[in-house]
């Protein structure tokens, strides 16, 4: 057996048992990469290394990669990935850098691939657009706006394409389903440097596996996304409520889940509650949106006005402006941590979990910059069925039947990394206790959404046995040497067995 084959055999064993194999020192990998693709590498200490390495939303995700690789084409990514596999170099892939999970999109002892240079945006004549993996959603909406088109994708300007591998809640979810279900083609660089196009007709199993399977299969270089029609102007904005209005808002949030989001699929609301530790104030500030040519608020969104927001920015707007407006306040460089779980929409549980979260948040409000965010995000029966109609994904949501699911988001922000030990374990414990409460009340759904999960939540396991078995079969076909298990720490790994 040659050295190369021995390394591959070890890697395959590692893939099977979830073990890590010894990797080549990063400095060697960086030198090999520099020799293969000169001019694309930023070394530690070089002018732009620190700037590029700090371009992450959460300060917890800024690590110390051995070097940074900034490709400008799929072929360059392919050469690099082959080199990484052949030499057992560790690496990480960054899209828009908005995951709050340390190590999901960065590495301490490997090469960081940043995708900003993969910035293609090309409209096809088949109601689709090819976008490079380095895009963020604001510029994509800006690009498509003049042709009255949009994509089913992220709602906040600087968030990246990583959500096209996990799930993807969007402005159009009630009508068109999750973002993953609107990816017509993934252009994927496999472990051996082969570039494949995974779609319903070409590599269909890989296409389906990527719809929730995340970074377990390859580096995505381009996405072909289905486009949908939008009017000249979208009706949307943000509604704000203060503490005294929140009980009425809770009713509207529940009604939105089980009635308005179901019966008027052009609506979109992202109900968000925020607690500011410094001011001890709680508000609701919810992005609100209607995909129609309107000049006043439609009946389906009227309950949000009836609850009398103290501020309401609803107007005729461009999508890019809404994406920018909604992102205001989500600053870079702070400590971020998040966790999530899913329930069948339940009014009493919505109330109780938010009440208990507020009680918990009070205990930590002395921490500098402390902020708590809680969201209830519906996934309607139609959204799930859109996924089925588009070839299926691996999330395991079909069993929810005619009941609307709600993705419950819990997020914390604060200033200093030195406070993480005080807060993170207690936060995890709190959310776990809410999961148990949901279980006791019979409202829990097992699904854990990739995009909002905490680092130790069992995302892929939550998709269920059948989907895990399918994902493992696809893994054998497309990543037999376990490159994306052993060399890429990534977000959430496909478990070697069980679920
Ligand atoms: C302010 C804010 C707003 C958000 N809004 C939404 C929203 O509207 N809808 C929603 O569903 N989610 C939303 N999210 C969650 C967001 O979708 C996830 O954080 C997502 O992972 C971000 O993708 P990214 O490319 O920015 O992240 P990154 O941190 O760069 O990547 C996330 C994961 O994807 C992997 N990855 C990225 N690109 C590639 C690639 N080309 N090939 C292989 N793997 C890759 C990374 O390795 C990493 O594991 C939001 C988050 C924040 C902080």
TrEMBL record:
Pfam families (alphabetical): FAD_binding_4
Domain FAD-binding PCMH-type: 61-230
The entry's keywords: FAD, Flavoprotein, Oxidoreductase, Signal
Gene Ontology molecular-function annotations: FAD binding; oxidoreductase activity
Signal peptide (UniProt feature, chain positions): 1-22
Similarity remark: Belongs to the oxygen-dependent FAD-linked oxidoreductase family.
Protein name in the entry: FAD-binding PCMH-type domain-containing protein
Lineage of source species: Eukaryota, Fungi, Dikarya, Ascomycota, Pezizomycotina
